[in-house]
Amino acid sequence: MAQNSAPNIIPVVLAGGVGSRLWPVSRSFFPKQFQKLLGEHSFLQATLLRAAAITSSAPILVCNEEHRFLVAQQCREINQQWDQLILEPEGRSSAPAIALAAWAAVAQDPDAVLLVLPSDHLVGNLELFAQAVQQAAVGARDGGLVTFGVTPERAETGYGYIQVADAQAGLQAVTSFVEKPTAELAQEYVDAGNFLWNSGMFVLGAQTYLDELAHFQPEMASCTQAAMADAQSDMDFLRPAPSFLNSPADSIDYAVMEKTSRAKVLPVQFTWNDIGSWSAIWDESGRDGDGNHLEGDVVAVNTHNSYVRASERLVGIIGVDNLVVVETTDAVLVADRDQVQDVKQIVQRLSETKRSEHLYHREVFRPWGSYEGIAEGDRYQVKCIKVEPGATLSLQMHHHRSEHWIVVQGTARVTREDEVFTLGENESTYIPRGAKHRLENPGRLPLELIEVQVGPYLGEDDIERFEDVYGR
């Protein structure tokens, strides 16, 4: 396929969200769009590669502040350059996020057409997708705000629906939008034949969208415009001004599409799945003769139509049907496959009880590498710290804890107050409470060390930074 088949279309990839229905793999600080659940690429990477195959324009990415280094790292893994990487100070749903990208686009090209893509969808048949984008772009250049409508394969309660005059026709006006229905209504929609799944992907003129936003949501339009007018560059990122926080929060469907007379829908033939639940993962995964997808160290006996994923330990399962079982280092999910839409209720309870398992994995990723909790007690905590070659942690101190470092692999350069020294494998050092310190990996191989923390408070917020190459 020609790389320049759609040179004037700018991909806008929305990389926010937490994917709570895919807990315990998807968590707030490492959500589903960054996970590799179906193949060698994450959902974000697959989305970027799909866009790159049909347009030569570098994408505009919009993501949450805390995910900025994950987005940048995953782009670099696939050699994807971006036009802008815009950091939302706080999530405000899709309508303000798209507005940030639209303001950035019209500043470069008043006639820019945007291809808006959530970062966590699965799309099959690239050729049909490219054709649909080109058809939608024609409608967008004529002033339409175009969404893709997918022919329903089943009565799905987790999707929104679009009512149309003729589901077999081409680009046409939307009759109505319908939110996620009950099972009975969903079946009626499928039987009626003139309802399509709302894919949540759009092709629209950037200025047209902003004009409609100003008409229906003037406060949102003005707040996002002001935020981008005063945006500040930070390393590879663009930070909108704090005025963004004054914007109302709303989806593009509620804010614009359900109100505007410019809403168009293009019924499409490519396959689509928004990967919103473990049942969707099961749908897209290869299965054995019993209808099971077994991943990792799994032994299944007399088990049917189930999804079982083992990450760290042996999982044995016997005499069950239609289950989802997902094991991670610190949590296990067991659910009926027909009720996995409600996994977010577990996440809500974890949040209400102030537990951390909905926020972090045991291995937590940082721009310099990662750390993983190994053991903890009343006044101690043990971590395995991995630092990428050439990476540097911040110059910092702790008010409540001391630290012992033991190098397991690689070379560490340590700053401790006025001292700077090097440690090799099986060498160690001590960082007293209150001492300024820094850890660096000056070598070409990953640095791995064991850190033992001792003190009355061991929280991650006990860090006072003095210098940081990552701008934290």
Task: Characterize the structure shown.
There is one protein chain. The chain has 472 residues and is α+β, with helices and mostly antiparallel strands. The protein folds into 3 domains: 9-273, Spore Coat Polysaccharide Biosynthesis Protein SpsA, Chain A (Alpha-Beta Complex), CATH 3.90.550; 281-348, no CATH class; 363-467, Jelly Rolls, CATH 2.60.120. It has 10 helices and 31 strands. The chain starts with 8 loop residues before the first strand and ends in a 5-residue tail after the last strand. Residues 1-7 have low confidence and may be disordered.
Strand content: 25-35%
Helix content: 10-25%
Q: Which runs of at least 5 residues are low in confidence (pLDDT < 50)?
A: 1-7
Number of helices: 10
What's the number of structural domains? 3
Task: Name the descriptors.
disordered N terminus; 3 domains; Spore Coat Polysaccharide Biosynthesis Protein SpsA, Chain A; 10-stranded mixed beta sheet; 6-stranded antiparallel beta sheet; alpha+beta; 23% helix; 472 residues; Jelly Rolls
